[in-house]
Amino acid sequence: MLELDDQNVVGFYRHLLSQIPGLRQDASEREMAANLVAFIGVFPALRGWNLDMTHVETLVDFLVDFIFRGLGIERGSSTQEG
After folding, report:
1. How many whole angstroms separate alpha carbon 44 and alpha carbon 12?
2. Which residue, 4, 25, 60, is CA-closest to 16?
3. Helix (H, G, I), strand (E, B), or coil: what is residue 62?
4. What's the mean pLDDT in 3-26?
């Protein structure tokens, strides 16, 4: 089960992060980033009892911004075409 998680869940984020142009991380940092992004996605489910879940979109936007800042990526607006 853990191997499947590593291959499919964390592996998805490894691949996704490897496709970001200009992201400068060594292999160890990419591995930590992939695991952290996979983990932080379950934050609302694990801490929902302590969060205002009536504003899920606000929480998701905050998490995405938090991840992008951690990776040093500038997030464009949702109306921006790319």
Report:
1. 20
2. 25
3. helix
4. 89
Mean pLDDT of the chain: 86
**DSSP run (H or E) holding 43:** helix 43-47
Q: What is the pTM of this model?
A: 0.74
Q: Which residues contact 53 (CB under 8 A, 6 or more apart)?
A: 44, 59
Residue 21, burial from CB neighbour count under 10 angstroms (0-12, 13-18, 19+):
exposed
3-state helix, strand and coil shares in percent for the chain, rounded to the nearest 5: 70, 0, 30
Q: Three-state SS for 55?
A: helix
Please return the burial class of 37, using the count of CB atoms within 10 Å of its CB with bins 0-12, 13-18 and 19+: buried
Q: In this predicted model, what pLDDT tens digit does every residue of 35-72 receive, in sequence order? A: 999 999 888 888 888 888 888 899 999 999 999 999 88
DSSP-derived 3-state class of residue 2: helix
